[in-house]
Design goal:
The complex is a heterodimer.
Chain A: H1 4-12, E1 29-35, E2 40-47, E3 50-56, E4 64-68, H2 70-77, H3 83-88, E5 93-96, H4 98-114
Parallel strand pairs in A: 1-4
Antiparallel strand pairs in A: 1-2, 2-3, 4-5
Chain B: E1 6-15, E2 18-26, E3 34-39, H1 52-63, E4 67-71, E5 80-81, E6 84-85, H2 86-96, H3 100-117, E7 122-128, H4 131-138, E8 144-150, H5 160-165, E9 169-174, H6 182-192, E10 196-199, H7 210-221
Parallel strand pairs in B: 3-4, 3-7, 7-8, 8-9, 9-10
Antiparallel strand pairs in B: 1-2, 2-4, 5-6
Helix pairs in contact in B: 1-7, 3-4
Classes of the chains: A alpha+beta, B alpha/beta.
Chain lengths: 123, 223
């Protein structure tokens, strides 16, 4: 199972303040990744396509929330399925700004393609 | 007994270095006299031919013995349009609402597929979300027999001119849809005299009610 603390706290944190995907340089939003089975929320702040903040269990009011079980999150990270597909088959729920949520789902898909994370291999 | 749906994938060249891909579905006893084109949502919002609504309508139409076509807009498959990533490309189109190229692409695709299958085939359009915008614009370029539109995004685009001009159209809307307000659609339905089906579902995305949506299309289009 994916170690969410390593994924967010180390792997993703290393990419703070860098433009993640050039094509998404216009995106600014606060995003909550809610791992429902372990009652954990990671809050990511995107500013013009850069990850400028990353916190666990923050109480921020996010623009959009992605709610899923850890197993589903792992499937997305491993690119077994895209975030959009997971949403359409109800493995992921998007709350808040649905419009932004669908756009960021595209960004996440591109991100996991460009920055593969190997479970167990610690990225 | 459920018939196996056979598929063919085709690539239609619409411009130098720009190809759009389509999948044609049918079964052994399908009648090539009717071709249903299913228009996907906006690429920035999960709009591709694997979308849940597009897939369900495609499968349903093909199961009924017709030829079903689902397709992707330019840039969706390759991830790029010429040298540009598809996301900013489509964001730029959205900011200007200038979709002439996309309409032209789809016109080329419809012509080519119909000519390849059966030049005299009757064509029908089923459109979901943004797909309504493209499909309704194309209605004047083809002799479309029947049209079924799902959740046209009336909050983002002006559809009233299309509703005024078009005939043989029916629409469906979700009970609670932030992109296609049910009450506004009900007013349009009365004003422009088109049938409207309300689907009891939580939002614009029809997750879990795809079969119900297909049945509404089947009823409205008489298939």
């Amino acid at each position: 199972m994916i170690d969410h603390e390593h994924f967010f706290g180390t792997f993703l944190k290393e990419k703070k303040n860098t433009l993640l995907i050039e094509a998404f340089h216009d995106i600014s939003a606060s995003v909550g990744i809610v791992l429902t089975d372990i009652n954990t929320t990671w809050v990511l702040i995107l500013t013009e396509g850069k990850l400028t903040s990353l916190e666990c269990d923050a109480t921020n009011n996010c623009d959009v929330y992605y709610q899923m079980e850890t197993e589903v999150f792992q499937g997305i990270v491993e690119r077994q399925f895209s975030p959009q597909h997971a949403f359409f088959v109800k493995k992921v729920d998007i709350k808040g700004d649905l419009f932004m949520g669908m756009k960021i789902a595209k960004l996440l898909d591109s991100f996991f393609e460009q920055y593969p994370y190997v479970i167990g291999g610690r990225g | 007994m459920t018939k196996t749906i056979l598929e063919e994938k085709i690539a239609v060249n619409v411009e130098r270095d720009v190809t759009i891909n389509a999948v044609i579905g049918y079964h052994d006893n399908s009648i090539a006299q009717d071709i249903f084109f299913i228009f996907p949502p906006h690429p920035s919002l999960g709009g591709d031919y694997d979308n849940n609504v597009v897939s369900a309508l495609y499968q349903g139409v093909a199961r009924e013995g017709y030829v079903a076509v689902r397709f992707n807009y330019r840039g969706v498959d390759s991830g790029r349009v010429h040298d540009e990533h598809f996301f900013p490309y489509w964001e730029r189109l959205e900011s200007t609402k200038e979709y002439d190229l996309i309409i032209k692409d789809t016109e080329t695709l419809v012509k080519e597929i119909r000519n390849n299958i059966q030049p005299n085939a009757r064509i029908h359009f089923i459109a979901y979300s943004f797909g309504n915008f493209i499909a309704l614009e194309l209605m004047s370029r083809f002799d479309v027999q029947k049209f079924f539109g799902i959740s046209p995004p009336i909050e983002a685009y002006d559809f009233e001119a299309c509703f005024l001009k078009k005939r043989n159209c029916a629409f469906a809307v979700a009970d609670d849809d932030i992109f296609c307000n049910k009450e506004r659609m009900q007013v349009y339905s009365e004003k422009y005299n088109f049938p409207l089906t309300v689907i009891e579902t939580e939002d614009h995305f029809y997750r879990g009610v795809e079969e119900q949506l297909f049945l509404a299309a089947k009823h409205a289009m008489g298939i």
